[in-house]
Amino acid sequence: MNNWLEELFGVKKPIIAMCHLQPLPGDPYYDKQGGMAKVLDCARRDLHALQNGGVDAIMFSNEFSLPYLTKVEPVTIAAMAHVIGELKKEITVPYGVNCLWDPIASLDLAVAVDAKFIREIISGVYASDFGLWNTNVGKTVRHKMAIGAQDVKMLFNIVPEAAKYLADRNIAEIAKSTEFNNRPDALCVSGLTAGSETDTQVLSVVKNSVKRTPILCNTGCNKDNITRQLSVADGAVCATTFKIDGIFENAVDEQRVKEFMDIVKEFRKTL
């Protein structure tokens, strides 16, 4: 098993917390009156709540850029780089980026802000809420090398939310061929939408289908199911469960983060 997760995050079964950025310039629901100052203030508040709550890593994403593009506008990358650059001195844990839903843009952003990893839809073809969703993993990996991002880890989301693989292939086949052809640093397994619970059985199928790639539970973790999910997965990406009242649109609730991470830390003692 590739052990880079433990090396980078310093713990077994790391929890990567999402810092969701408010709508950005160019997004349909951008708050022009509040401007970038509001985006930065909200990101700073959530960042500190997550870190104070004890998460192992942060991933910045333009989560409220709905509806998403599969090729983002340059202004989105610039705005995200501005926010992360402003917060950089306040970040105390390893961090990554997710420029939805564009792996090339995510890599460009990662290089600009010294992020350690990206998460994206990097391979496959899907029918999605955002139209026909194609990828070009060969081009993406070549771009990664060309821009000096050799050390940026790539987390492949192989069950994207709001989309279905176009070919009639089961998840075990997808996991095996993705590992063999693309050498992902990790595979992310999701539920239907952000906040939807990932099926533990699906996690197990993926885990048993690959030989060397870590598996991350990508959506729907909460304090009631996290030990079950981590009994299979090598880590988790968490967001909605950390929000006030567990509602996607809300700000991060530091107390909810602490309660969740206390359960995770107790679970790690059994490993």
TrEMBL record:
Domain of life: Bacteria
InterPro entries per UniProt: BtpA, RibuloseP-bd_barrel
TM stretches of this protein: none
Pfam families reported for this sequence: BtpA
Family to which this protein belongs: Belongs to the BtpA family.
Name by which UniProt lists this protein: SgcQ protein
